[in-house]
Amino acid sequence: MLIGVSLGPGDPGLLTLKAVEALRRSARVYVPGELAGELARPYCQPEVLDFPMIEDQEMLEEIWSRNADLVAGHALAGDAAFACLGDVNTFSTFTHLKRLIEERHPEVEVQSIPGVGVVPALAARFGVGLDRSFLVSDGSPQDTVIRIKATRPRELAGELESQGYREFILGRKLFTPEEEIVRGEMPEKSHYFSVLYARRGR
């Protein structure tokens, strides 16, 4: 199994208990750079993999594929972790590595542990409250919408479908014993603690 481990924004005190547990129990831990390595090192002996910031797409694909094959080989033999700063599923190296592993090694099971990402980190550091809708962007085209308090998911999905969104996932009470995840056809009503994920067709 491959476990994506979120290391938080840089403060060692902001690692979650679950992240620490995963770092300690994994037979192999990989990180994409020394900053991530420093955060992981109190709990394991991480191996730093090279993910260069270059524009040569052919060379990048070769390096990323080689890293994906290496990580997948150990993930098939036992628990392997890939640990990143911030949250592993938000603008992260792990997202790209996961995609390649799923393409090249579909037999590898992949899970992830969420962490403190850039949005809650900046809100805390800047002393601002994010109590209205906001946009987070890296400059690429927007292809995903997340709606919190999604109490009428079927109606919301219909509105978003007219805007070109095609993939819908509803989560109720995520990470609680009552968690429920619905994909595809959306129910008419849902709990207040529901979140709807919508993505454009590709």
What does this structure look like?
This protein has 202 residues and is an alpha/beta fold. It folds into two domains: 2-119, 3-Layer(aba) Sandwich (Cobalt-precorrin-4 Transmethylase, domain 1); 144-200. Helix content is 33%, strand content 22%. It contains six helices and nine strands; from the N terminus they run βαβαβαβαβαβαβββ. The protein has helices spanning 17-25, 34-40, 57-77, 93-104, 118-126, 153-161; strands at 2-6, 28-31, 47-48, 80-84, 110-113, 144-148, 165-172, 180-183, 194-200. The strands form two sheets. The protein has a five-stranded parallel sheet, sandwiched between helices. The chain has a four-stranded antiparallel sheet with strand order 6-9-7-8, with helices on one face. The longest helix is centred in the first third of the chain and has 21 residues, at 57-77. The two termini are 28 Å apart.
Q: CATH architecture of the largest domain, please?
A: 3-Layer(aba) Sandwich
State the secondary-structure class. alpha/beta
Please, what is the average pLDDT?
A: 94
Biggest beta sheet attributes = 5 strands, parallel
The percent of residues in helical segments reads: 25-40%
> Regarding quaternary structure, how should these chains be classified?
single chain
CATH topology of the largest domain, by name, is Cobalt-precorrin-4 Transmethylase, domain 1
- Identify the CATH class of the largest domain: Alpha Beta
Name the CATH homologous superfamily of the largest domain. Answer: Tetrapyrrole methylase, N-terminal domain
Please give the number of β-strands: 9
Tertiary shape = globular
The total of helices stands at 6
Question: Helix-strand pattern, N to C?
Answer: EHEHEHEHEHEHEEE
